[in-house]
Amino acid sequence: MQALTNRAKPVDRAPMTWVEKLYLWNILKGMLITLRHFFKRKATVKYPEQKRPFSPVFRGLHILNRDEQGRERCTACGLCAVACPAEAITMEAAERKKGEENLYREEKYAARYEINMLRCIFCGLCEEACPKDAIYLSETFAPANFQRQTFIYGKQDLLIPDPVKEPELYAKAVGERGKKN
Amino acid sequence: MAEEVKKEAPKLFKVTIDNITIEVPPGTSILNAARQIGGEVAPPAMCYYSKLQGSGGKCRTCLVEVAAGSTADPRPMPKLVASCRTNVMDGMIVKNITSEKVIDARNGVVEFLLLNHPLDCPICDQAGECHLQDLSYEHGKESTRYEFSRRTFEKHDLGPYIQLHMTRCILCYRCVFTADQISKKRVHGVLDRGDHAEIATYIEKSLDNDFIGNVIDVCPVGALTDKTFRFKNRVWFTKPVDAHRDCPKCSGKVQLWMRGKEVFRVTARKDEWGEVKDWICNDCRFEKKDTADWTIEGPSHVSRHSVISQGHYEKLEKPNETLVKVLDGRAPKLLMDIHSVSEVNKPTVKLSAIEGPAHSDDFNTAK
User: Fold this and answer.
1) What is the reported pLDDT for B1?
2) Segment B233-255 mean pLDDT
3) Alpha-carbon torsion (B280, B267, B46, B202), positive or negative
């Protein structure tokens, strides 16, 4: 076959000499590469003690947001569910009764809200679709489990802690991303 | 003899709308002539309703430019005219979407209609089939220039079945005409003037008339909504099917909005302009929420442009199940029944059976 470029090197097929047959120099060359890697920066971290910072656009577990007064923002408009390509989100709406104004921001709210984390592909389209700033993808992984049942996340799993009643937990949930803003 | 022939074939008027010429009988409005052409040429209408006499002329969304009045008098009309209230003349030339003036004016009209509209679409049950929503998507701007607080009203009930959200109303008067013309007794109307004008009943008098439910279908926005469907589901998650029943009061031809085997809502069937085809009675609309009450004809036709068409299949062909055959007759092992974990859509809880909207106690007792 004709060479396409003139960078091809012809292979030297001459028989090896006695010194070459010992492979000493080649072994030493290989060991030197190994030795150099001891002093290089490591590609891994010691995970549970040390954690990698998340990218600011990381899309992890969902969180249902509350407003400054601790009221749930979600109004069960169904836009996240209709945007969801994996059909992971389901909800049931209810009307706010008199006396529940401190719990829910709007007249209608999600009485039940579920995300099937087995179906979710963490694309973030629900976050983009939400007109009420209610759903966000956080910087957390979904914890692994042997049971499928544990991956159906209800409202109690998704809601952010109340900023009025549990300010420390809320600050922890908001994390570094909240401090920047 | 000659006179008889004349009567049989009345002279048709030639109108040109957006460079498309059509012949229509005298007395036709520009809007109806444009609707005969169809498609984008037809101006949008928020208040005009072909089935209601005297409707139209209030919202000004159907404004068109008349470039030439008629063959006899080819001068253009000085101002844009409301096409639902202007009749055609022979040789009239009308510009709708081809006129920049019309598009500009329509954008302005939409801005005016939205001045006091609360834009609570995420809450509103009409979202997804709302004419004002469609109109503002086509013509609206992203932000408002209005700096003052919007007019607000207390929401109140018109009878046991109809919920009125006056804040969303655009005062098209369609429901007033419906009550006047379809039912014999009208107890609601528009009270006060200007900014204070509101649809109301005298002393909260309930609207007990067999056909009053039609005001819900006629309303172009979410001002009048079905209380039996209130907050139950979003329209685009329910599946519209055509159904009929033997009704002694009305035609019985309706559209059911179903989810699984539950009937969430019953409405009249609508034509391509979003107008009701046959009026239906309150019995059909509010009382018959059981699949057994209806003879289902099949999925209704939904325009591809509507959000309701998501997941809506009119000709569904299911492929043969091959899994059992491949597994030598064994059924696949079910790893998890979603209803054993999920709290949503429980087979034991029938949301459609709850009378009004669901409340917190409905969900607490259902557990």
Assistant:
1) 44
2) 92
3) positive
User: What is the Cα–Cα distance from B237 to A76, expressed in whole angstroms?
Assistant: 12
Residue whose C-alpha is closest to residue B257's, from B232, B274, B278:
B232
Selection from B179, B168, B162, B210 nearest residue B55 by Cα? B179
Determine the residue of chain B that is closest to A105 in CA distance. B123
A132 contacts in chain B (CB < 8 Å): 122
Whether A82 and B237 lie within 8 Å, measured CB to CB: yes
Flag if A77 and B230 touch (Cβ within 8 Å): no
pTM, two decimal places:
0.82
Closest-CA residue to B312 (of B242, B252, B214): B242
Within 8 A of A100 by CB-CB distance, chain B residues are: 360
What 8-state DSSP symbol labels residue B276?
B
**Residue A11, token pair as written in the block:** 């292979």
Distances B200 to A36, A116, B48, B216 between C-alpha atoms, Å: 86, 45, 21, 14
Quote the mean pLDDT of chain B.
87
Provide the token pair at B16. Answer: 């040109």
What is the third-level CATH fold of A62-180? Answer: Alpha-Beta Plaits (3.30.70)
Mean pLDDT by 10 residues, chain A (181 residues): 82 89 93 95 89 87 92 94 94 91 92 93 94 90 87 92 90 72 51
What angle (nearest 5°) sits at the alpha carbon of residue B274, between those of residues B268 and B280? 15
Q: Which domains does chain B have, with CATH numbers?
A: 11-113 (3.10.20.740), 131-226 (3.30.70.20), 232-367 (no CATH)
Per-domain residue ranges for chain A? Answer: 62-180
Burial class (CB in 10 A: 0-12, 13-18, 19+), B57: middle
Q: Is B50 exposed, middle or buried (0-12, 13-18, 19+ CB in 10 A)?
A: middle
Q: At A30, list the tokens.
A: 């290989």
CA separation for the pair A81, A62 (Å, rounded) = 13
Tokens of A99: 């006396």
User: In this predicted model, what pLDDT tens digit does every residue of B5-54 receive, in sequence order?
Assistant: 555 667 899 999 999 999 999 999 999 999 999 888 999 999 999 999 98
